[in-house]
Amino acid sequence: MFDNRKVCADPRPARNRSSPTSHSHIIRSTQPAGPRPLRAQPLMLTDQSEARQTRRYVEKREVILDTAAALFNRKGVRGTTLADVGQQVGLSTNSVTYYYRKKEDLVLACLMRAIAETSGLVDRAAQADSPSERARAFITLFVARLARTAVGEKPELMSLREIRALPESHVEVAFAAFNDMFRRVRGLLCDALPSDPTQRSALGARAHLLWSLTSGAAGWIDRYETDDYPKIAQTLADIVLNGIAGPKSAWQAECDVTALLPALAQPETTQQAFLRAATELLNEQGYRGASADRISARLNLTKGAFYHHNENKDDLISACFDRMSTVIRNTQTLVDDLPGTGWDKLCAVSRALVHYQFSSQGPLLRLTIYGALPEEMRIAKMRDMARLSTRFVRLLVQGMQDGSVRPLDQAIAALQVHGMINAAVELRRWVRDADADNAADLFVRPMMVGLLR
């Protein structure tokens, strides 16, 4: 008998249990060590350890975290300095280092706080009785938290996309907390599938889909009125749980992806190989890890060869985005010209692009790398991705017209389809046996027909 406890964390939070993402842990792990307080002289705040205990210190630290999280979200870790943070809170750079010695310490503190609060939302959602109610509750609570930020009631939480921007010593701490949070998300769905070893991969894939589509709302929800956020949460939950298929549409078990990805049949040029290697490293290790040396080493080429084909790393990253846009755009165009219903075309383009993620020329670049780009380049690339996302709208509308797609908010549904395709690049992190042959069934199918169907 398969032991479901090895796959599913208890969806209900344990009582009186310290959490590795608690606020006390954040403070301890990100602040410089100092001498212990002199208890015999409580009024003599002469060293850093005693200063930590003051309310003023705690309040200023929270202001720094609030400000830094918003700056990291807007400008990325690479584009934000301690001086930027200090200027926003009225402190010099040296004064900011009194609270956080290095920018990496501040980044980690912001991430740990975001993970801790998100874990709390998952624990609250876990109180619901069924997997569908728990998933719906998590989506509702997450969007409600975004609404509280939008109206100024709560500070902005740092996006978890920047975890890979941390150095190795810090990223291990952040990923340990993130992995714990993901296990809680997976626990929301634990009794949705039979306790069978064959369902282990399916459970991990659906938990990743739930997390990706829910957290992804932070990137697009600000285009809506704040008063509409509760309705947006209902729409998002409906699409995640019930999919987009019309009543007579069935999942297509087979799809000729090679016809939609003709580039896979062509030999890879040296420049294309550099783009692939750079994309892999950017996805795995973020901007910091994708150095010219590492990119060249992955291809068994010299650093000189890198600069022979590339002006600099920023230009190469920009080219990686352009490569991704070209693959998505060309596949969309090929599908759009095929006969069939809107549902047929949506399934075909989704399967093909997820297949590409696991192909010899894949993967596509994670959209979470946006924060590593210079601001002007980031805005241009985000605009390009937004245009590609709207191309899915046409297929959804066609499907609603021919009855193959159920009536729904096509703008939000298009964002979810695009988000699912991009999130597939992370699927192997949670499903070790995911590959080009099974990724469509594991990941595309629950998006199209419903998370728990």
What's this, in brief?
The protein is an all-alpha fold. The chain is 61% helix and 0% strand.
Word description of this protein:
It is a single chain. This protein is an all-alpha fold and 453 residues long. It folds into 2 domains: 4-236, Orthogonal Bundle (Tetracycline Repressor, domain 2), CATH 1.10.357; 243-449, Tetracycline Repressor, domain 2. Helix content is 61%, strand content 0%. The protein contains 20 helices and no strands. Helix 3 (55-75) packs across helix 6 (103-125), helix 6 crosses helix 7 (131-150) and helix 6 runs parallel beside helix 8. The longest helix has 28 residues, at 375-402. It is globular, with a radius of gyration of 23 Å. It starts with 22 loop residues before the first helix and ends with a helix. It holds the Pfam family TetR_N. Residues 1-43 are annotated as: Disordered. Residues 1-13 have a biased composition (Basic and acidic residues). Residues 58-118, 268-328 form the HTH tetR-type domain. One of its GO terms (molecular function) is transcription cis-regulatory region binding.
Average pLDDT level: 86
Global geometry: globular
Name of the CATH superfamily of the largest domain:
Tetracycline Repressor, domain 2
Biggest sheet record: none
What CATH calls the topology of the largest domain is Tetracycline Repressor, domain 2
Helix content: 55-70%
Radius of gyration from the CA trace? 23 Å
- Proportion of strand residues: under 5%
Uncertain residue ranges: 1-6, 9-45
Q: What is the CATH-assigned architecture of the largest domain?
A: Orthogonal Bundle
- Provide a count of the helices: 20
> Would you state the CATH class of the largest domain?
Mainly Alpha
Number of strands: 0
How many distinct domains?
A: 2
